[in-house]
Hints:
With 211 residues, the protein is an all-alpha fold. The protein has helices at 2-19, 23-27, 31-57, 65-75, 84-104, 113-116, 120-139, 146-155, 164-185. It has one domain (7-185). The protein contains nine helices and no strands. Helix 4 (65-75) packs antiparallel against helix 8 and helix 5 packs parallel to helix 8.
Amino acid sequence: MSSQNEKLRWQQASGVLRAMHLEWWMARHSHKTVLALFNLVNSGVSMALLATVALVTQEAFIFPSLGATAFIIFHVPMAQPASPRNTLCGHCIGALVGLGALYMFGLQHADSAFLAGMDLSRVGAVAVAMGLTSCLMVAFNVVHPPAGATALIVALGLMPNISQIPILMAGVLILLMHAFVVNRLAGLRYPVWASAGPRPKREEPTEPDDV
């Protein structure tokens, strides 16, 4: 599996460089150097794009867990957690569950944990947010690890208003649009929605051998 991922990452980087007529650059550097710089440029450009939108609008189009999302969708773009379906649904679940946890523990109008400190209510909110987000992502087969960080960001009071959720999701969508352009430019069939990869098979219960 790691060999297949390495092949896809090299195809992605080399495809973009060929499209930019920079084939000579690949011949002069090792695979690891090319891939590392490819991730440097793509992750940096995607965060700069989101930060610029946030600067112009003065809205929270960028938040910490998008950094982890950027790494996943550029490093292993064809993996199921990197698909638009998993990315959008995962972050949506994390944000809504985190918001629900705030209301559950009466923290919707409280200062963030970084200003007011931790108390038992906040402990309960982050535990419910992370646990339920993990549960729902697995249950609906939309696993996206950075969404767990989104749940904590909301539950810790950094994005406590329901009006911030559409902006948060718009930031995710902008990142996915950038990933789609880059991956299709590289010649990879990055999905429009769901990954075409096989879903894990359920293990059938085995009957004990007769003694």
